[in-house]
Design brief:
Blueprint lengths: L1 H6 L3 E5 L3 E6 L3 E7 L2 E4 L5 E4 L1 H6 L7 E4 L2 E2 L2 E2 L2 H16 L7 E6 L5 H13 L4 E6 H8 L10 E6 L4 E7 L2 E8 L3 H16 L1 E2 L2 H11 L10 E8 L5 E7 H7 L1 H17 L2 H10 L1 E4 L8 H9 L3 E3 L6 H11 L1 H4 L10
């Protein structure tokens, strides 16, 4: 039996728009790579995935395309997503035999067609048995919430493609809101800001770096100025400009406002008894977007509720899926029940 387990280890996956994380039963998190693929345009042969593909991004020649096969939390390019998943599983397992069971975290707003695409990708990548779990449920389990109790927990998981807001009690999602505005939309807002205000074109990687370094949702104690390099849209030559953290905050205002609005909508839909629990326990923030400076303070200001950023918010979802995998019988009730085609 021990030998069988070695060769068919169960896998938990946080298949994110920005990053893919893999947890192997009994081993923990074994892979955390960007959800990016570089492939040959003519043959569709995959050249690089993850960090290696990210290094190529923005520097590729005409025969190579660097693509993110997931958009807004769901599969946009089935063939490339399947190849990426297969490669990541092979990397995480050292090329061992196919997995018996794979549990994958997906957005709450996912359609039946999108669920089928995720299942099919995992099955084609070698899984014998595929289960899906909602991202906020996985995040709640990952940060140690007792999801089985009748007490309400409010989770906000801000990823690359989607922001998932859910109130959880009794192993189920009582009310939720899933919006396709998150980290990617923030990066895009920064790119548009430079185009509109400075006539400068910057890449996605540069926009993300600016967001991480100086992006904020509230005024900083000490505002920062950074130098940004890009291409002048008028003259077509490389150029640089100094920008302040205040300007970047203004660029991020719209996506941040939309996330705040979705939180308020979810709170309005929450039953009064659970609202009382949230008032006592507060809101829990997970996902990469939770690291945006001052976002917790801004949500606190807008809702008058306590807001807590989870420890290591980037891995909360995959840790939760991993716990489901380790205690499958206990957590089977929290999995998404989906129609089989």
């Amino acid at each position: 039996m021990g030998l069988l387990n070695i060769f068919s280890s169960d896998i938990a996956i946080d298949l994110g728009t920005a990053n893919t994380l893999i947890y192997i039963r009994g081993k923990g998190i074994v892979l955390n790579e960007p959800s990016i693929v570089a492939f040959d345009k003519n043959t569709k042969r995959i050249i690089a995935v993850g960090n290696q593909a990210k290094e190529i991004q923005g520097r590729e020649h005409r025969d190579i395309k660097v693509s993110r096969p997931l958009r807004d939390g769901v599969i946009a390019d089935f063939e490339i997503a399947e190849g990426m998943l297969r490669t990541f599983i092979k990397m995480s397992k050292g090329g061992l035999l196919p997995s018996r069971r794979i549990v994958i975290a997906v957005p709450t707003g996912i359609t039946e067609v999108e669920k089928r695409a995720v299942r099919d990708s995992a099955e084609h990548a070698g899984a014998k048995e595929v289960h899906l779990i909602a991202e906020p449920m996985a995040a709640a389990i990952g940060i140690g919430c007792d999801v089985e109790s009748p007490v309400g927990n409010m989770i906000i998981d801000i990823g690359g493609g989607t922001t998932e807001i859910a109130v959880i009690a009794l192993s189920g999602i009582v009310t939720d809101e899933s919006i396709r505005i998150a980290g990617d939309e923030m990066n895009n807002a920064i790119q548009q800001f430079f185009k509109k205000n400075y006539n400068i074109l910057i890449g996605e990687r540069t926009a993300e770096m600016i967001k991480i370094q100086v992006g904020s949702a509230m005024p900083l104690k000490e505002e920062i100025t950074i130098q940004v390099k890009g291409r002048d849209l008028v003259q077509g030559i490389p150029t640089s400009v100094d920008v302040s953290s205040e300007e970047i905050r203004e660029a991020l205002r719209e996506p941040v406002d939309q996330i705040i609005e979705a939180i308020k909508v979810t709170l309005e839909k929450t039953p009064p008894e659970l609202s009382a629990d949230i008032l006592d326990r507060g809101i829990l923030l997970t996902g990469g977007g939770a690291l945006l400076k001052g976002l917790d303070e801004r949500i606190r200001l807008e809702t008058n509720l306590p807001v807590h950023v989870a420890e290591d918010p980037l891995t909360a979802v995959v840790r939760g899926v991993g716990k489901v995998l380790e205690n499958f019988d206990k957590y089977e009730r929290v999995l998404i029940r989906s129609r089989r085609y």
